[in-house]
Amino acid sequence: MPIENIPEIYFQNKDTSRDIFVYDFKMTSDVVKSKVNLRMNMFSFLQVGKKQVHFANTSMAVNSKQSLLLKKGNWLWTELLDTEAIYFCKLFFFSEKKLTEFLSKYTNDVKPYKEEVPYFVIENDDYIASFINSLSSNTFLNHNYSDALLVLKFEEIMLYLLNKYGDEFEYYLHSLISNEVSPFKKIVESNVHSNLKLEEIAFLCNMSLSTFKRHFTSEYNEAPGKWLQDKRLQKAKELLQAGELKASDIYLDIGYNNLSNFSIAFKNKFGISPTDVSS
C-alpha cells in the first residue's frame, strides 16, 4: 500500500503553491485502504459512505452525517467499512497562511486547543450540506475569479462553524497554526534539568562552545550559563518543596559538582538555604 502525499497528488500541473484547493474524492472497493501523508490542513466533507480513519494514537469511524477538519502533518490511513459501497467526499485544503489571515481578521488571541486531537468532528446539517454541494473542483478551474471565489467559500464555512461551535472550534483553529520549536531549542530545553555542562550541550548541537553561546544569546536574549542555572535552581526548589528529597540527593542531577557550591548558588538566588526549604 503506497503512501500518498496530499494534496500534491491531485494537482494537475506542477503548481503546488496553491493556498486553497478543492478536490472531489471517490474511494471504491478497488481501493479499500489507503495511506496518506497530509501536507495541508483539510476539511473532509463526507457525502456518501462510511470509513474508519486511523491516526497515530487513535482512530474513529466517520459516516455521511459527519465531516472532519484534519490538521496538516498527520500520517493516517483509511479503510472502507462497507467494501460494497462507494465512499465520496469533498476535500477542501487550506494553507496556514490563509488560516492565519482569517484568524487575524475575525478572532481574538486565544489559548490553543488543550486536547492533543488530530481532528475536529463536524456534525453535518442542512447548511453544511448546501455548502458541500456548492463545492466542486470543476467550478474553480480555468476561471478568472477562481481564487477569489475559493477565499469566499473558505471564509463562509469557517464563519459558519465558528458560529455553530463557538470557542471550541476557535481554539482548535488556533492550534492548527504551527508553533514549531527550532532543533536548537529542542536540544537545549530537553537538557535543562540534566547535569550536562555547556560544552556538552554545545556538542549535542554540533557547535563549538563559542558558537553555541552566540546562538543561545540570540535565541533567548540571555547568557546560557545564567539561564541554565536559573532554570535548574528553580527545579531544585520545586523538588525540595515536595519534601521527599534533600539537597544532598539532587545537587549532582542539577549540574553541581559539590553540595557546597549548590547551597551557595541556591541561597544567592532564593535568599534561603536548601535545608530551610526541605525542613
TrEMBL record:
<dbReference type="InterPro" id="IPR018060">
    <property type="entry name" value="HTH_AraC"/>
</dbReference>
<dbReference type="GO" id="GO:0043565">
    <property type="term" value="F:sequence-specific DNA binding"/>
</dbReference>
<feature type="domain" description="HTH araC/xylS-type">
    <location>
        <begin position="182"/>
        <end position="279"/>
    </location>
</feature>
<dbReference type="GO" id="GO:0003700">
    <property type="term" value="F:DNA-binding transcription factor activity"/>
</dbReference>
<protein>
    <submittedName>
        <fullName>AraC-type DNA-binding protein</fullName>
    </submittedName>
</protein>
<dbReference type="InterPro" id="IPR009057">
    <property type="entry name" value="Homeodomain-like_sf"/>
</dbReference>
<keyword id="KW-0238">DNA-binding</keyword>
<dbReference type="Pfam" id="PF22200">
    <property type="entry name" value="ExsA_N"/>
</dbReference>
<dbReference type="Pfam" id="PF12833">
    <property type="entry name" value="HTH_18"/>
</dbReference>
<keyword id="KW-0805">Transcription regulation</keyword>
<dbReference type="InterPro" id="IPR054015">
    <property type="entry name" value="ExsA-like_N"/>
</dbReference>
<keyword id="KW-0804">Transcription</keyword>
